[in-house]
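Lab notebook, bench 4. Still working through the backlog of constructs that have no structural model yet. Next entry is a single chain of 144 residues. Request: give me the structure tokens for it.
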Amino acid sequence: MKIVVVNKKANFNYNVLDTYEAGIELKGVEVKSIHKGDVSISEAYVVFKKNEAYILNMHVSPYDHGNIYNVDPLRTRKLLLHKKEIIKLEFYRKKDSITVVPLKIYWKNNKLKVLIGLAKGKNLIDKRNTIKERDLKRESKKYY
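Model written out:
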């Protein structure tokens, strides 16, 4: 498993409750661009339309040698999930006002996969506690 990109903002802004692995529908030049690492998922999120899952605001930079085959960098991309998983995710999203965010993109058996997570937003106090814990860990490593 080779990790391409990780959404560092997700763990700071959200409490991740559960994770799911999904495939992603891409064009050929997008795969090449992601392979180079020219992708950003920090502002991305998942929406559901007609029992299908789509990822929005995932930025895939145009491939250098793509010419006429390059597509819109911010286009909506379909996520490949089982129908039961989509229904379950949509139910939790509506019931508990939970956000579905991508956590990381990685290669698994020569296929690109997206790890998506059910996440509940943190408030300001929780974010401060996260910063405090991170600083304490950093200082304890410094002295040992």
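Notes after review: The mean pLDDT is 91. The radius of gyration is 17 Å. Flag for follow-up if needed.
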